[in-house]
Amino acid sequence: MFMGVRTGIIDAYGNYEDVLRDIRRFTSLAHGSDVLTKALLGNYALLDRGRPLEDLRHSIFRTALSRNSRCPLCERAQVCALDHFLPKNHFPEYSILADNLVPVCERCNRLKGDECDRVDGLLMFHAYFDEFPDTEILLAEIDVDSTVSIRYSLHRSDEIDDITFGRVEKQFKILGLFDFYQMEAVAELTDQIDLYDETYASLGDSGLRSTLSALARGAERASVNHWKAALYRALSRNEEFCSGGYRQLLASPMN
Ligand SMILES: [Zn+2]
């Protein structure tokens, strides 16, 4: 009996990645009332109270901070919480599994919440198991008029299948990333007006374009779809911005 339960628990944890791939048909193992369910929930209660889970949490944080402390969901804020990728409320059996605990920022943790769509099967991107598309799909649109306005949008390339693009759209929607990146971009550019001014004064519009292209390449090292990469790519291609229009950053409001 005991060995059977032990095997069941090990299988439940070992099948985690398969569950991610087929979430539509998966029902939490811990929703039943059999011996395995009790063991899984007991396991959680036991570890959630004691030091083992604390050690696990600290270890995950230490690893995240030693590599890259940015939140993998928004690529902006510092990690400060552990997200249960499969929510604890729906899948308590995975709440102590290290693979299911992903360091994220406070904002993303709050917005993601219990998100786990088992109707259309579209999960958000899992930082450990999924690769975000590496072709350009995040675009920034720049409009220079009496102000500088920035709009982010997603554009599907032929190389991306429907499911992957659907997951990207879902992630952006749930985390409100278009508005979030727009606000971050405004703050980023406002901080850099002096740099643009000095570059334009000494090197002209081609110098400013080169500087913006270099900033885009730097951001692309993190990801071709990093919000800064999309922003600087768009700015470097914008004639008005590079030929002095950047000064409209001083006009307000920007949106
Ligand atoms: Zn975040």
Using brief descriptors, characterize the structure shown.
mainly alpha; binds zinc ion; two-stranded antiparallel ribbon; 10 helices; 9% strand; elongated; 2 domains; 255 residues
Short summary:
With 255 residues, the chain is mainly α.
Describe this structure in words.
The chain is mainly alpha-helical and 255 residues long. It has 2 domains: 2-112, no CATH class; 138-250, no CATH class. Helices cover 50% and strands 9% of the residues. The strands form 2 sheets. The protein has a two-stranded antiparallel sheet with strand order 1-2. A two-stranded antiparallel ribbon has the order 3-4. Helix 8 crosses helix 9 (227-236). The model has no long low-confidence stretch (mean pLDDT 87). Zinc ion (ZN) binds at residues 71, 73-74, 77, 104-105, 107-108.
Which helices and strands occur, and which strands form pairs?
Elements (H helix, E strand, L loop, with lengths): L1 H13 L1 H6 L13 H15 L1 H17 L13 E4 L16 E4 L1 H7 L25 E7 L3 E7 L7 H13 L2 H15 L1 H28 L6 H10 L2 H4 L13
Antiparallel strand pairs: 1-2, 3-4
The structure holds zinc ion.
